[in-house]
Amino acid sequence: MRYCSTRGQVNNKSFEEILFNNFTSNGGMFMPESVPNVDSKTLQQWSKLSYVEMCKTISRLFISEEEIPTADLNGIITAAFTNVFDHEEIIPVQKVVGDVHVAELWHGPTLAFKDLALTCVTQFIEYFNKKNSCHVTALVATSGDTGSSAIESVRSFKNIDIICLFPKGACSNVQELQMTTILDENVHVFSAEGNSDDLDIVLQSILKKPDLVKKYNLCTINSGNWARIMIQIVHYFYVYFQVCNNPGDKVHIIVPTGAMGNVTAGCIAYLMGLPIKITCTTNINDTVHRAITHGEYCPKQASITIAPAMDIQVPSNFERVIFLFSGAKEVQEFLSSYEKNGKSEVPQEARKKMSAVLSSHSVSHEEMVNIMKQSWLEWKYLIDPHTATGMHFACNKNSVENASCCGHVVLSTAHMDKFLETLAMLNIPHQPSEKVQHLSEKPTKFKELRKGENWREIILNTIFAIDENYKNLS
């Protein structure tokens, strides 16, 4: 498998190249040059695989044997999941009410679905670091969960430093403490007086400079990194087989949506041949919903809500989705219009093809709160605010539209432990797990990025210091 830019011109790149160079020279994002086809016979065979076995199988389709031999690839995936997740199935699927299931993607070390991919991504990075005797600095901007997951996944690797930015006051207390209580020398955390989109702009201004990326061995393990998308494809297949007894029948998967990395993975699974329908659910930060439903991409100012991973108005992976359903030319035209006008129309061809698999739904604060209460009071099942957007749709879905689906699955993206303030607000009783119980008692380490300061310069100076330190130790 080789990789190309969503904006054209750049192609024939290896997995290793795109693992470390997440944006193309023309500012695009990397995608596979072709999507593997999975026929009905293969679907039947895959239905018996464990999650880890499926992860090895699907990764093999996107990484050549020459780059990572099968024995090494299997070892990487095995290491990523050994003694890391607290459930033997990795992703248990619970039937909550009627034909609505919930896939619990949050049994990893930081209680978020990001753990599924990031445990693998950092193993891939370390594999090539050892092979090439090099050091990497990973840059991450987070709206909540990615930061702690990325930090946890790299902290044991001395050949990887991480710089993590989070928006001050926008994350839950637990989310923030999961980042700021990590004292390891290779972890550099910044609390910024801005929103998630502001942080993305700063990091992309660095990561889209090939000279800087090459000189200082920079990468990102945000969803801009293709390897994260690749691993997220796996849970669509795995969850499908947990719900569908007859491979070939259609399953409806409901995806709480932020930057659209998870949705991109679902679209690829669909194009590979997985019989699914996907509904993206958002909170009031509904750029994705308006783009899919009305065809207009028009980001507004992001609002802070109780679902911080959704407090995004510029979903960075949307151009990947457009690329999948049209092509590089359409991506270029779409982006050109957006840069000129601050808004853009979703290309007609892309919208037509997307409609076969994608729909969307936006949920208000009141609707999120009400479904969280209902889930606990009626079904004794705790859900976090992000999962609540999916549950709201699942429990109010149009039965005619979805009659052809044999099951409906909400992807639950985070554990309720991460949102204790919301539980308290709703008077829902809950005993926090040991993973978060004593976080507030731990010392913290982080720096602040204040309004008016040159954030880009501060981050660059941190990169320079990391590089100098690595050279002195070598």
Strand order of the largest sheet: 3-4-14-9-10-13
* Main β-sheet description: 6 strands, mixed
Average pLDDT figure: 94
What is the CATH domain class of the domain at 93-110 and 227-434?
Alpha Beta
- Radius of gyration from the alpha-carbon trace, in angstroms: 21 Å
Secondary structure tally: strands: 15
- The shape, in one word, is globular
Helix content estimate: 40-55%
Distance between the termini: 34 Å
Q: If classified by CATH, what would the architecture of the domain at 93-110 and 227-434 be?
A: 3-Layer(aba) Sandwich
Commentary on this structure:
The protein contains 20 helices and 15 strands. The protein has 474 residues and is of the alpha/beta class. It has a 6-stranded mixed beta sheet with strand order 3-4-14-9-10-13, with helices on both faces. Helix 3 (51-62) crosses helix 10 (226-243), helix 5 (114-132) packs across helix 10 and helix 10 packs across helix 11. It is globular and about 60 Å long. The mean pLDDT is 94.
What's the layout of helices and strands?
Elements lengths: L2 E3 L9 H6 L9 E3 L7 H7 L4 H12 L7 H12 L11 E5 L2 E5 L9 H19 L3 E6 L3 H10 L5 E8 L5 H8 L6 E6 L3 H12 L2 H7 L1 E3 L5 H18 L6 E7 L4 H12 L3 E7 L4 H8 L1 E2 L20 H8 L2 H14 L2 E2 L2 H7 L3 E5 L2 H15 L5 H10 L10 E8 L7 H6 L8 H4 L9 E3 L5 H19 L1
Parallel strand pairs: 4-14, 5-6, 5-8, 6-7, 7-15, 9-10, 9-14, 10-13
Antiparallel strand pairs: 1-2, 3-4, 11-12
Helix pairs in contact: 3-4, 3-10, 4-5, 5-6, 5-10, 6-7, 8-20, 10-11, 11-13, 13-14, 13-15, 16-17
